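tool_call predict_complex ligand=iron/sulfur cluster
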Amino acid sequence: MIEVFKTKNIGFCFGVKRAIKMVIKEAESNDKIYTIGPIIHNPQMVGMLAQKGIKPVMDIKNITDGVIVFRTHGIKKEEEDFVKQRGLKYIDATCPFVKKVRRHAIMLKKMGYKVVIVGEKEHPEVKSVLSYLDNDGIVLQKPEIIDFRKIGVVSQTTLEKEYVLDIVKELLKEAKELRFFNTICDNTWIRKQEASNLAQKVDLMIIVGGKNSSNTTKLYETVKKIQPKTYHIETDEDMDKDWFKGIKRVGITGGASTPDFLIDMVERQVKNF
Ligand code: SF4
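tool_result ok
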């Protein structure tokens, strides 16, 4: 029988747990709840919430009643303004760590720094932070020199410290003054450490999480470098029995937005192979 090992930090992170709890509580007394975009990057959980009447909408202007949920990654400033101007009911489920990125970025701008957000241009968290700067900021995904002397840097919460530091070091080549707020979420780092350690002790690793989840994808990329037999799956149905031929020890971990029930299903299925 295959032995299964899981990382200590598995299942929802603090921010996701908090957001899901908030919406499920609201759903007890309200049957029209909308999230702007998916509340978290996990299609299976978003599907489960939809059955409780919690539905993602892409355009906030289509909402005229019900309760609007500001998702964990944060929403854009213009969306928040729209909700407040219309007097719509809302729940702010933005992760407090994401709000910290925003707070530092706004403060740096007020202090006269050119704000650099290290992160993925298309990630909702980055788009949200940028919008609170009235789009007056620079998003950097790779080391680049920019023509500003006074630079303030924040980072997307789910990035690797080394990756962010490489970009900061490059900025220092031209900057006369640079302030850097380390806004990387510890949870992401801890999960990577635990997964990397586990990957060295097993014959195969399974990373469970949404294919649209940035932190899950990065977790997969990190672990794959250590254990070539690493697979990123969304559910137990994505697994192939052939992967497990001759395998004795399997490690399982998941991204910050992966619910426990998906992990449990994967664990059961692996033990059945
Ligand atoms: S990974 Fe960190 S920043 Fe992102 S939602 Fe979870 S606790 Fe918040």
